[in-house]
């Protein structure tokens, strides 16, 4: 369920809607584009440098790879990148041809479809590129895996996706699956970051992470260096703290940044190497937020409404959606995906002995809590950022994030907030219904106006 | 015999009505269980009637307020039943699966039935992990404790062993029916076999076992029509296939000789050890199940569902495979292409039937099944 942040869309893509205003995106995030490109470049050079390559799905485990000096490919990042560049269709068609139903997680379908295209080429003994090949040039060099690691919190689909990848590679690539179980929160002492279940599950995941270091040792023939892990986690922790500090500034009205800025800032806290660059990135973001506050400049012109985005991101539509909300003076200030994930509890990490705190951060990804605790946390965020309404993205093929959405919307309404649902998907554009969103968004804005007038 | 089958059919058709009646008569507790991997033995040892909660035939109405229409029929139906108040008969619900859709359903049920005790213990789904055994033992130990808290008294290991013995006996008898059917010695229809298995998921096990003993002894030794095409049924995971679909296969000239359905052989094929520590026995039972009949929700690296199917289609003498896939069932959607390719490669006739909770287009299905049966016949003749 975790994702990339390289949303580059067709520049002309913008909704014809509302007052025509566009989102005032943070300039500091551009540095992220460079970092992401550097990351892919070094990945493509990995084999030449004699590095082993791990394909992984799920939570943000790259610091372990970084520490062990292996290169890493995040399956979701790959699908999201293709999708953000509108290159996903051919990969999905190849998956279709093999028989993967379009109701299946579109991240998985895109990733598996692309993998099949690669395997076709290998079998045919040709590396020619068909004119409609979805791969951007650099993807040509995407190295095949030496290891597969799955660490998917909550979602069984995320786990089964790698079960298929493993089989498609003829079971020749060693695979390890880490289980990150749901924190159901049913025992009397259960709560956010507390209780018997929390302690027990934290240890369970931490033990598996240690087992993962052994797995890597076995398949590289080298000892795992925990000092290097500490070093990488030092940067990650700092970056995470800066990110939260900048996010907190968005309690200001107008908000200096929006959910869409945080969406494009996921890569540095999700899969980029834990080094000074990610700290520099968030220093830049924080500084720009401060400057904007000093100038009274918002992420949206004349901010009138403040919204919360629930659900998985619609990767084909990042800029499109940012502009759509800006065009009705609505700032999407926060979201479940951005604000409840990606090292959101950095203080749990003891840099000198980071594994347990890392496990704990993995356990509290945005859907891995049972609904009562998760919704409690959502309400806290909504209160803190003075949210007027919820935008619920019902991502058609992502049950991981659509589970509980009705309960979240019910709770929002009980707390006096509006809620709208719109249909779309993580990486399959054909499920997105623009008209439906327009109509519902207009209705929500009218209702918010009516409420303001009555007050 | 008809009477026994009729009793089972009535229970299978309305499991909660049976549970209500049982409760009225015994004043005992009824505990709802979710498919597909939780053993009912512990709940039984706690003196309760374990009932595996089933999809029903009602259209989804009130449930629409809590579940999207792109969820499988099982989840939508369960949520609808919960909101319709059908689960009032239950004293507790045991959850524990890994399927992401079921996890969502667990939360909706918790929210809509706030007084219902929910004993949630998620099973480790990676059966070949180093820690799988220890984790499964931990899960069942925890469940044992929670059941004791629910009933307010300890559950003795001997009680659990007695339940294991009873459940084993019940499963073994159903397996006998499977053996007889495979050997062509009895002619239980697909519908009847499902009623047998589904009623065993619901009825008092001792009562069901007595019925089974009588049924096996009394069932006429007569095979199905010799010109019928022998069919193996696969898939359908948490849903019991709709009975008209099973009837249709036979009406078109097929006869179901074997299956890997949860409401079929998957439910009965494997027993727990009757001696030793019962928690260990149940953990081993759970972990080894998928090494016999692979389940796409519990992928094990060394096993492939398609290999199992190829082997067992041959072993049962089936001339073709019909895959019943519930719409929106992700685990099944992931693994189906492997099955399709394997059967194509081996040139064995196979047909995918996607099923829906709502009305199925039976006329179109009939044409497809007829064509499939024709192909299988021609392949036999060739
Ligand atoms: S269904 Fe959603 S949460 Fe699950 S693997 Fe796909 S994108 Fe991730
Ligand atoms: S039928 Fe499939 S999707 Fe539905 S609950 Fe069972 S495993 Fe999950």
UniProtKB/TrEMBL annotation, chain A:
Pfam families: HGD-D. The keyword Protease does not apply. One of its GO terms (molecular function) is iron-sulfur cluster binding. Belongs to the FldB/FldC dehydratase alpha/beta subunit family. Keywords: Iron, Iron-sulfur, Metal-binding. The keyword Metal-binding applies. It comes from Paracoccus alkenifer. It comes from the Bacteria. Coiled coil: none annotated. This is 2-hydroxyglutaryl-CoA dehydratase, D-component.
TrEMBL record, chain B:
Keywords: Iron, Iron-sulfur, Metal-binding. The keyword Metal-binding applies. This is 2-hydroxyglutaryl-CoA dehydratase, D-component. It comes from Paracoccus alkenifer. Belongs to the FldB/FldC dehydratase alpha/beta subunit family. The keyword Coiled coil does not apply. GO terms for molecular function: iron-sulfur cluster binding; metal ion binding.
